[in-house]
């Protein structure tokens, strides 16, 4: 009987020792995971900071060398300068809006030939940045050739549904207050309109615009 008690006691001690070892390993793993998570959070914060700085540099690059700005309001307005060598501060712009899964050219100042066809292509391929680059190129070509129109472009309202017109009207009423709140820092959060199922982006890389 005493031998059985001794064996049971020894077994209990072994089990207790195993439990203590398992707890020690568990605590070690928890600490290791916690340290890894802290390291990951630190790296993510550092990357976010670098990303913000890179975005600011890209915005400054666009503005300094291409005179390129993106402005929110009635749709999204793309503004260019530094196109006309004789008048580098002259602004060229167009505004697009996504209505019922289709891009609409709200206005184009000054109007350039072929812009309607470019919008049709945009609705087929959804390549917004190609569209922006091509529009800037059309402004350049029209300026060099002297074929710029003195009028701006507005859409044919008969081709837009009543619900779309309502959306345009609401945006028009809010445009003034929106523009007053607009600052350069908002460019980081500006959502470029994209069709469903495709991601939104706030800016193209400097290299993509450089090809214009």
UniProtKB/TrEMBL annotation:
Chromosome segregation protein Spc25 C-terminal domain: residues covered:
72-140
Q: Does the keyword Lipid biosynthesis apply?
A: no
Q: Where in the cell is it found?
A: Chromosome, Centromere; Nucleus; Chromosome, Centromere, Kinetochore
Domain of life of the native organism = Eukaryota
Q: Could you tell me which residues belong to the region Disordered?
A: 171-212
Record flagged with keyword Nucleus: yes
Biological process per Gene Ontology, one example term: cell division
Q: Which UniProt keywords apply?
A: Cell cycle, Cell division, Centromere, Chromosome, Coiled coil, Kinetochore, Mitosis, Nucleus
> Which Gene Ontology cellular component terms are annotated?
Ndc80 complex; nucleus
* Leader peptide range in chain numbering: none
Q: Which InterPro entries match?
A: Spc25, Spc25_C
Q: Describe the subunit structure.
A: Component of the NDC80 complex.
The protein's role, per its UniProt record: Acts as a component of the essential kinetochore-associated NDC80 complex, which is required for chromosome segregation and spindle checkpoint activity.
Family that this chain belongs to: Belongs to the SPC25 family.
Q: Name the chain's protein.
A: Kinetochore protein SPC25
Q: Which organism is the protein's source?
A: Setaria italica (Foxtail millet)
């Amino acid at each position: 009987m005493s031998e059985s008690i001794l064996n049971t006691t020894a077994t209990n001690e072994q089990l207790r020792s195993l439990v203590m070892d398992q707890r020690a390993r568990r605590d070690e793993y928890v600490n290791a995971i916690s340290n890894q998570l802290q390291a990951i959070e630190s790296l993510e914060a550092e990357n976010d900071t670098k990303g913000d700085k890179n975005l600011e540099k890209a915005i400054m690059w666009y503005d300094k060398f291409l005179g390129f700005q993106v402005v929110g309001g009635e749709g999204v307005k793309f503004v260019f300068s530094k196109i006309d060598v004789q008048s580098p501060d002259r602004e060229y712009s167009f505004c697009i809006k996504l209505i019922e899964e289709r891009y609409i050219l709200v206005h184009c100042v000054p109007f350039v030939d072929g812009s309607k066809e470019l919008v049709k292509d945009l609705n087929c391929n959804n390549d917004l940045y190609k569209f922006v680059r091509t529009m800037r190129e059309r402004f350049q070509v029209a300026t060099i050739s002297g074929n710029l129109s003195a009028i701006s472009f507005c859409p044919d309202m008969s081709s837009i549904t009543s619900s779309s017109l309502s959306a345009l009207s609401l945006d028009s009423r809010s445009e003034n207050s929106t523009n007053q709140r607009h600052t350069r820092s908002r460019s980081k959060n500006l959502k470029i309109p994209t069709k469903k199922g495709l991601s939104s982006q706030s800016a193209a890389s400097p290299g993509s615009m450089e090809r214009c």
